[in-house]
Amino acid sequence: xxxxxxxxxxxxxxxxxxxxxxxxxxxxxxxxxxxxxxxxxxxxxxxxxxxxxxxxxxxxxxxxxxxxxxxxxxxxxxxxxxxxxxxxxxxxxxxxxxxxxxxxxxxxxxxxxxxxxxxxxxxxxxxxxxxxxxxxxxx
Length: 139
Prior knowledge:
With 139 residues, the protein is mainly α. It has helices at residues 5-29, 32-41, 47-65, 69-86, 93-113, 120-126, and strands at residues 129-132, 135-138. The chain has one domain (5-138). Helix content is 72%, strand content 6%. Helix 4 (69-86) runs antiparallel to helix 5 (93-113). The model has no long low-confidence stretch (mean pLDDT 90).
């Protein structure tokens, strides 16, 4: 049976991106103040709620598009590790942190593999664009 690893990678990237986007959108649409208050009740600086929500929202879009996949996956991994250590640890494996571990594994997989051939960044590189610290530049 023929395998399609690039389509598998695309599937993971799309699912991770859409779900993180949904979480970020929810934080803003239900009122970011609620997330700020929650962060403060568990001993995390409230302003980090904004940081997390923006990473989830913007990172989700970028992940779906396949732009900056490795960087975004590292940021998602940091968020997930933070959630595992602060909130999810006491919830137990089943019905608790197993989903966070699965998303962490997917994020780490995306970090190791990158966005793959079905990503906007790969397309732009093929068209002669380069990604540099200063931004996107035409060669």
